[in-house]
Amino acid sequence: MELGTVISTFEGPSTTEFSFVVNSSKVRKGHYVQVETEDGLLIGFVTDITRANRYFERAESVAEYERGGEPLLKNFPTTEWEYTTAEVRILGTYKEGNLFRNTFPPAPGSKVSLADESILKNILGFDPEGLHIGEVEHHKIEVRLNLNRLLQKHFAILAMSGAGKSYLASVLIEELLERTPEQGRVAVIIIDVHGEYDGFKSSPQYANKTNIFDGRKVRIGMSRISPQILREFLPQLSSAQKRDVENVLIELKQESKSKGELFDLDDFIERVQQSNMKEATKASLVANLYSLKSMRIIGRSDVPSVHELAQPGKLSVIDLSGINELRKKQLIVAYFARKLFTARKKERIPPFVLLVEESHNFAKEKASKEDMLSKSIIEKIAREGRKFGASVGLISQRPVQLSTTALAQANTHIIMRVTNPNDIKHIGEGCEALDESMLKNITTLRVGEALIVGEALNFPVFVRIRKRKSKKSSKGEQIDVLARKFEELNEKKKKDVEAFI
Questions:
Q1: Running DSSP on this structure, what letter comes out for residue 216?
Q2: Contact between residue 307 and residue 181 where contact means Cβ atoms under 8 Å apart
Q3: HEC string of 342-359?
Q4: What pLDDT, on a 0 to 100 scale, did the predictor assign at position 210?
Q5: Average pLDDT over residues 86-113
Q6: Cα torsion angle, 130, 134, 137, 141, sign
Q7: Torsion angle of alpha carbons 123, 125, 130, 133, nearest 10°?
Q8: Is 237 strand, coil or helix?
Q9: Three-state SS for 439?
């Protein structure tokens, strides 16, 4: 479909951009277009559209004339002087099935057409067998992301609250669960802070592929804790105290192994109390261990085990919505993330992707590793995971607070609506492929729209996220629905009491 004609301006056409006068009302910002050139088919992206009319160029003239009560539109042929121009950023020149860097500008007067869909699929980097997450904006082309390109070097979903982060994550999870053994299936583990993913368990097509683990029932096996992990759990101890407590742990582990019995935190505390270390040191250690015990998170064995968490083509949800203490949440994430990574390095579990909701609360930029227990392992997986088939997906509404080390290793960013200037600036500094125009567009994205930039695709692409197949969680309903349910429940209780009396 012909859209317009390339024009000559002060800035171009150049090798990187051009403008064209629009002759079709169907042209929209975000359209992909093509122009026939001597070197091949030039492909571009419409970055902006401007309408002009010389009758309306001088504000004082228009105002003065219309004070007389007669609009310009009625007495002058204004529509004949109206024109529309579109600005295009050149992506490259398509020739013989490949896209090359453009080295010569298109000629003024060349005709501009809507880009061919088959060519677009090729140059944007879509995979016919990939993860279907939506459609290209203004084009009926399915966005299918290659699994390796998305997961191998990690990804981040960034957006303000209510923009659709969890919805998009659910769509990605659906695609991962629907893969066949022949396509390659990864284990999916998600840290669910608000209980937003329990809908998978009540969805017929995903129920038998989903395990939900209540965070309140999760246990860290004392027998499984290594000296390194114990040091992280007790960061406030001095170096000497850490050595003492490690010696006790190693001794107890050796005894446990010889007897074939597991031990818990009470056994460990008892052994510390029986040790011959200094009384002052012992008292401090015991106090810290009792503080750890008060969290009710340490048991004899891991619940769940890493083998229960990581199963090919299955989803494991660690539901932390019932836990209020942030430190307890961090302990759970730190421990199981480290266990998963270690097990994967030894090839004891399948390749996995660990999705971390509210990741800025588990890997905060301006926080020490002592105060943010889960930060170091999240950064470690982000740095080293691709070598072993361990991927991390960071989901955050405050990217400016998220660890720059972890975020920099996420080579694909899926950005939904963001309005905070600090977050926008942070995103722009971390994504070289984003220009000023795209950053401005981020603030205007509607719910369910996203910009994908980075390793997963060859060029930044605006996407409309497809409709999810899984059931939505009962949590997070609109406030009027919650208010109505509350009153209905109270009314029912009142009637039950009256009937009983």
A1: G
A2: no
A3: HHHHCCCCCCEEEEECCH
A4: 97
A5: 94
A6: positive
A7: -90
A8: coil
A9: helix
The torsion angle over the Cα atoms of residues 99, 121, 418 and 413, rounded to 10 degrees, is: -70
Q: Domain ranges in the chain?
A: 2-124, 142-218+303-465, 221-298
Rounded Cα distance between 430 and 407, Å, is: 8
E strand or H helix that includes residue 284: helix 279-293
Is 242 in contact with 234 (CB distance < 8 Å)?
yes
Q: Under a CB-based contact definition with an 8 Å cutoff, are residues 405 and 382 in contact? A: yes
d(CA 183, CA 144): 14
Return the residue matching tokens 């997450």.
Answer: 133
CB within 8 A of 160, min separation 6: which ones?
Answer: 397, 416, 417, 418, 419, 420, 423
DSSP class of 413: E
The answer to whether 13 and 4 have CB atoms below 8 angstroms apart is no
Amino acid at 75: N
Q: What is the number of alpha carbons within 13 Å of residue 15 lying toward its C-beta?
A: 6
The pLDDT tens digits for 442-488 are 988 999 999 999 999 999 999 999 999 998 876 766 777 778 878 88
Given a contact cutoff of 8 angstroms between Cβ atoms, the answer to whether 212 and 201 are in contact is yes
> 76 pLDDT band (50/70/90 cuts)?
low
CATH class of 142-218+303-465: alpha beta
Give the 3-state secondary structure of 440-475: HHHCCCCCCEEEEEECCCCCCEEEEECCCCCCCCCC
Cβ proximity of 433 and 398 under 8 Å: no
